[in-house]
Amino acid sequence: MTEAWGPDDGTRRPGGPVRVRVPAKINLHLGVGPVRPDGFHELSTIYHAISLFDELRASPGDTLALTMEGEGQGELALDDTNLAIRAARALAEHAGVPAYARLHLRKSIPLAAGLAGGSADAAAALLACDALWGTGLSREELADVGATLGSDVPFLLHGGTALGTGRGEAVSPILARPTVWHWVVALAHGGLSTPDVYRELDRLRAGGRAPESMPGLDDVMAALRQRNPEVLGDVLGNDLQAAALSLRPELSDVLKAGYEAGAVAGIVSGSGPTCVFLAGDGAHAERVASGLAEAGVCRQVSTARGPMPGARVT
Ligand code: C5P
């Protein structure tokens, strides 16, 4: 089925600015298989979009330019290497239109944090430019263009809770009864490079110091259906956690502090260094967040809910 993605409220002036909001992702299960011939690892993962958002505004322009504010300002390159710029160019090439737009990013998702902030910005740029240029691609077509830019881009266009296979780019929604899950997000000082974390996992496995891909995906699916945080907390798992902890041993203090603050469970998010903690409800999440903040082991602590929709025109 193809579904044209226009503005959601029908009020946007044609050719006028388009605003898109896009969530961060965490992985409730991240099973990492062997390295493939293309250098990527085969994944089986359960993605979950949370209420930590980047916003991207696209306006008409006579060139392609990107400005930004917020997380990573002064650090994030705004040139042709930026994933939002690369996404706009990829869409323009795919649709056969000139890549002219002024993009402005308001970032809340930190860089290199294991929250897919770069992929989120690519997803937002695809959707925003599609609306600005009237190219009218379906969500699936945008996801196909996005998959060439980053493994998590297709998921960030879809959002919700979804199964990811292949290198993560093959996404199928998980249909569960609507449930709100409450999270505490512990941001770290500095980032971790995703390729470095995958390489560290390969190194640990080669030395017999990390297990091969863990089972447990079906347990997470079953726990999502039960809608019980204790049950879900027992089965959260991330093969990259051992590698992230090996590169950043102090993350074990963050995980410990989260449990001491009463979290149901804690896990490194994706390739880290962000740690996320599951709470029983919103009030519990607030208590865990203040306990964790008092422990003084992370840069910033906030609460979030999931699942959230993927990139959306606002
Ligand atoms: O696709 P993405 O840009 O997120 O990938 C960043 C890096 O993470 C890749 O270049 C690769 O080193 C590693 N990666 C991997 N296997 C995956 C996804 C990412 O090895 N399935």
From TrEMBL:
The active site is at 25, 152. Pathway: Isoprenoid biosynthesis; isopentenyl diphosphate biosynthesis via DXP pathway; isopentenyl diphosphate from 1-deoxy-D-xylulose 5-phosphate: step 3/6. One of its GO terms (biological process) is isopentenyl diphosphate biosynthetic process, methylerythritol 4-phosphate pathway. Gene3D superfamilies: 3.30.230.10, GHMP kinase, C-terminal domain. Residues 82-160 form the GHMP kinase N-terminal domain. GO terms for molecular function: 4-(cytidine 5'-diphospho)-2-C-methyl-D-erythritol kinase activity; ATP binding. ATP binds at residues 110-120. Residues 221-296 form the GHMP kinase C-terminal domain. Keywords: ATP-binding, Isoprene biosynthesis, Kinase, Nucleotide-binding, Transferase. It is an enzyme of class 2 (transferase). The keyword Acetylation does not apply. The keyword Nucleotide-binding applies. Its EC number is 2.7.1.148. It comes from the Bacteria. Pfam families: GHMP_kinases_C (PF08544), GHMP_kinases_N (PF00288). It catalyses: 4-CDP-2-C-methyl-D-erythritol + ATP = 4-CDP-2-C-methyl-D-erythritol 2-phosphate + ADP + H(+). PANTHER family: 4-DIPHOSPHOCYTIDYL-2-C-METHYL-D-ERYTHRITOL KINASE, CHLOROPLASTIC (PTHR43527:SF2). Belongs to the GHMP kinase family. IspE subfamily. Catalyzes the phosphorylation of the position 2 hydroxy group of 4-diphosphocytidyl-2C-methyl-D-erythritol. This is 4-diphosphocytidyl-2-C-methyl-D-erythritol kinase. The lineage of its organism: Bacteria, Bacillati, Actinomycetota, Actinomycetes, Micromonosporales.
